[in-house]
Batch of 4 targets.
Target 1
Amino acid sequence: MAKEGKSASGEAKLLKNDTKKLGKSGTKPLAKSEVKQLDMSKTRAKKIKHSYQVKDAENSILLKLKDGEVVIEMNPEIAPNHVARIKELVRAGFYNGLKFHRVIDGFMAQTGCPYGTGTGGSGKKLKAEFNRTPHKRGTVSMARSMMPDSADSQFFICFADCPWLDGQYTVWGEVTSGMEYVDMIKKGAGANGAVSNPDEIISMEIIADIG
């Protein structure tokens, strides 16, 4: 998963040897029957897309936090397998109620562990889809262990530009609305960013499914 350190100049950078491996998840992979299927008219989809001002409602997420709604637009062109899996998990309700277990002020907020500890996932590892999209404020990217192909369900949202992560983690989306509410997520203490009584994801929905 993403880790932060400090260089002599005071700038944060990734410490590879300080990255902890994700523990084996006890969660079974989702069955196809558990995944909600999209079924709506083009007119309705267009209306919903317009109301949230997204480019593609089928590849956009509405993330509800305690302070407000956040829109994440996914990019299947750069990470098709990760986007497809995230959509499966969102439609199955996997993320609803999960904690932001690791939050570092000025760096990122991480969530997606069913145990709320950073040690679990959905039970399906994904082959890395590293790309040239930079980690900047609002970037949504996958957490992983030291192994490149270990991303599962955990992801993080960058509070600020994090160029030292570029090319090492799979970027799959970007916050296009409501970043001010991401900023309000409760921060952790200490270098690891563990959060006491952390904030939770109220819900995540594919915008094309809302109605």
Target 2
Amino acid sequence: MDNREHKKTVQEAEAPVVNMTVNPEKVDTDPGKERPKGREYPKSRSQMPEDQLFEFAQYNAQEAEKIGYSNYSYWKSVWANFLKKRPAVIMSIIFILLFIFTFIASAIGKYDIHMAPDPLNRMYISPNSEFWFGTNAIGQDYWAQVWYATRASILLAVLVSLGQITLGVIIGLIWGYVRKLDRFFTELYNLIDNVPTIIYMTLIALMVGKTMVTMGIAMVGFGWLATARNVRNLVFMYRDREYNLASRCLGTKLGRILFRNIFPYLVSVIILRLALAIPNTIAYETTLTYLGLMDIMVPSLGILLAAARAVFPRAAYTLWFPAAIVSIITITFYLVGNAFSDACDPRNHV
């Protein structure tokens, strides 16, 4: 035995022995007796009364629930993160004011959109105190034309973009989750995507009509492809995760799995695609108008831009005003879309 072990054995032998047995004669077991808190017998714990050794912990159900309670709210956190993006907030306020002003402009304007005060003598008059934005080729007030066209284009772009995104998300969810339908939707995608969309739009305009409603429905019918393809690829990443496998084993319905388990993970991507689809719709409307596939009887920003190209050197103001408004809309939705997409990502939440 070495020196260390010998010293340890000696110390253990010399250590005092503590008697932990309870002496029943010295223990006060009277339950009705009140005793002060603290140790009455500090040298012999075994002789302490039981109510001095132990104390019952108080239980409060409400306080217990607060231990696992969190004030976190997803959409509250999204809004808080979005407000941190100052440029996006400023541009969104400008866009809201711009859209509201489209309704006010017609009330403060001097002329109606279809009224031509003097078509022969008031063609292409530059902006002045009477005609704030000048006049067009037939002497109509360009102020009324621009603001009516802005309202019509924004409403058309928002409705068409919502239709495209909604249809694309629904088809993309089903396409990515139900494997039996993957072949069908893939062939449908290839059939539509391999033919230029402008050909379909031309056929619809010639056979059905060139009205704004008809062409808007046609844009929805052929504009869901990119969104559906993107959503389908993302659904492939989430469909076989543990919580979805557990939902299937428990017999959860398909619609509930798609819209409660998978859809929340796609919100940031959907918001970004929606924000970018609105200015793209206005640009596509301009192309259709320029090609003569849209009804020019209803003013829109695309119609004004198409008409301004032919007379730009002569009346440059006819291009400046609608182009400035289209630029504001495009920049607004680009900044707001990116900012809101980042805010919707749970990884950016604190």
Target 3
Amino acid sequence: MTATTTGARPSTNGRGPGDKGGTAKREIDYLGILLEGRAFIALIVLIIIFALLSDSFLTFNNLLTMTKHVAYNAILAIGMLFVILKGGIDLSVGSTVGLSGVIAGVLLQGWQIDAFGVVIYPPVWVVVLCSLAVGTLVGYVNGLLVTKFSVAPFIATLGMLYVARGAALLISNGSTYPRLGGDPELGNTGFGIIGGGRLFGIPTAIWIMVVFALVAAFVLKNTPFGRWVYSTGGNERAAELSGVPVRRVKLRVYMISGFCAATTGLIISSELTSAAPQLGESFELNAIAAVVIGGAALTGGRGNVRGVLIGAFVIGFLSDGLVIVGVSTFWQIAIKGAVIILAVMLDQAQQRIKRSKNAALAASSHSEPTTTPSTS
């Protein structure tokens, strides 16, 4: 009984078949690690650069202020993450921010009902619920357009961007609602705590961001809905054949995005103690940028809350850092756009490396020597 060997010829230099060199493989691994952690590395580099350029950048009060600004974008980006994981986009979140603030302004300054000749001053908790409901309604309409009427997400949410902004302007007649502190005699005080309050010395907005991040991470990782979101974004047809309620998932992710946008509108209006219909203009771009920088794929199915938070910190610290060192507003816009383009390019490079590694592994497995018994 003898054995014959077929397949690739054994290497004489100690390397496996198809292995062009252990050093090259290690270099690819190192490059993959760098690309995987690119958002965190970018954040560290930004902190170092701005700390060297400004003595006040790393002070405790400045870090708190910048993190509070990050919270606005992070909450928006968390909602956007759900939509992008599904493979969609939501361009209406900025307008929803403004609309929710206007709704709060109307209710806090008195809702006049002409038919009955009365003015209603609801308590703050009612104001908050109404504003959140309006934001969620905008998301529901977005989801309905995408699911029931098969409108492309870009077009549907672009249209709602104008509808929500127009509604805010019509309700307010283009004016700003100032002095949203309320009146103790009317029982509608306390609105300022949402955006201007502090708990254990930390701004309320930061605590809200932490709560939203923890809840979103839990939902995406530990619930059937989270798995449905990923599977729908990865392959919608396969998910549907597997029994995933694709239409319901689409509807809910847009509602989540609208809810997050309304929360951001309430926080900012509360901090400013005023509500303007122009609030939130271009916020949707910051939210999308945070998601992309954080490593999520615009095609869907890939991304996580941790990456989104890091992306939001990159955008926030970059914007505030440029202001602190006195960079022109025009340059700030250009630099932010360049960062977004670079993030997408790096993501594409990471995916190409992964595909090449997978192809190399597959080729290596097919070329492994095999031993077959034979009789002499």
Target 4
Amino acid sequence: MPENTKKAPKVINKSGTLKMSDEVASKKQTRDISGRPMDRGRRRRDRVRDNGAPKEFDEVTINIDRVSRTVKGGRRMRFKALVVIGNHKNKVGVGVAKGGDVTSAVAKATAKAKKNLITFNMDGETICHEVEVKATGADVLMKPAAPGTGIIAGGVVRSIIGLTGVKNLISKSLGSTNKVNIAYAVIEGLKQQTPRAEWETTKVKGATKKASAKKETK
């Protein structure tokens, strides 16, 4: 037998198994317990994100505070995040949460905001009527405005209203400057919005008109 056709000697590891050459190892296919081939390039479904799909809600981080709690070993530092989400129509929500770092705090606050979503009534591109809401120490006044006015409001109110479909609004913060309380007051004010058809004055006027019409027919 010529020397060219001689097989390469088998190399055995210390454990007694055959040592695989690089060429064989690159072509070898890994299989699972059931014997099915495993595709190394395949990614998990829960880790595949479709970035091309539009997001239904936009989120804005209004404020991040560093808070501390005194424990036996010293001070425990954490972060508190205030996040608002909205769909630029008539859905909006606010969430507040704490976390060990900024990323986890924002993620928790966003999840809470999604759970606390509200749907409010609008009159075109403004709110239905004037409302003044007190939440703890915060006192927020909001008024409807004519088209072209824009959003005349402070930082927190502007951030929340900017994620809704309201384009014209006049607002004034009269009480505490605590951002969390102001955010809750704005949400409560939007929740109290009642369409014009359901106003008590409108119902009374309609009832008086019907009563006068009946008298005339008699």
